[in-house]
Amino acid sequence: xxxxxxxxxxxxxxxxxxxxxxxxxxxxxxxxxxxxxxxxxxxxxxxxxxxxxxxxxxxxxxxxxxxxxxxxxxxxxxxxxxxxxxxxxxxxxxxxxxxxxxxxxxxxxxxxxxxxxxxxxxxxxxxxxxxxxxxxxxxxxxxxxxxxxxxxxxxxxxxxxxxxxxxxxxxxxxxxxxxxxxxxxxxxxxxxxxxxxxxxxxxxxxxxxxxxxxxxxxxxxxxxxxxxxxxxxxxxxxxxxxxxxxxxxxxxxxxxxxxxxxxxxxxxxxxxxxxx
Length: 276
Fold this sequence. Notes:
Layout: E1 5-12, H1 19-34, E2 40-42, H2 54-60, E3 62-63, H3 68-80, E4 83-92, E5 99-106, E6 112-117, E7 123-125, E8 131-133, E9 145-149, E10 152-156, H4 165-173, E11 176-180, H5 187-205, E12 208-211, E13 215-217, E14 223-225, E15 229-231, E16 237-240, E17 246-253, H6 255-263
Parallel strand pairs: 1-2, 2-4, 3-4, 10-11, 11-12
Antiparallel strand pairs: 1-17, 4-5, 5-6, 7-8, 9-10, 12-15, 13-14, 15-16
Helix pairs in contact: 1-3
């Protein structure tokens, strides 16, 4: 495998309300993406269940070992020799009433290389009609996760994490050059903040940001923003989707990172530790 240029496919989907329905939906999208011959295929957050109904979520969520979306991605990676980032799955945990919001990175042999549990939980008041309290339903992650790939180190994050720059600087200080941001961004915050946040994290860390989002209307009147995108280390958008489901394909060149850092070496001038 070349360690310079990477072919990337983002599966921007309009997620359904059960794991079985999403497994079927994602299988079709994976096959469609395969035509581009990508090195890495990225899925969004909540790839197994999309709903605003908490009781429905708890009823239909599965344990990790029983998730059909995860199994579909593992078998695809193994059969077609592809790396797959399963943006996140909402999963039950044994002996717990709370769920996990867990991201997986699968290698080309179908092996789970790493998983990441969302650290920053989405407890916000978007407006009078839209309130989110993830901490009531999900366990909080407590570990920064990095995957060593053929193209360098990749950092795993999920959605709301994008608002916490210290996490991204931590990843980059450990050698990460690509940061994944699977998401299910709300429409109001997406319109006002999504692109700005993604470009900011790319610029300040002179790294690639690969952000795959849910889009459209989902079960129990949940709606998500879409507009998946890849941002280069200079903060320029390489490619961007829209509000509709689509497989988004692009090629990134890892040499862009050192090129940008030679001109703008800000990460080497970081004096964070001196502020304490």
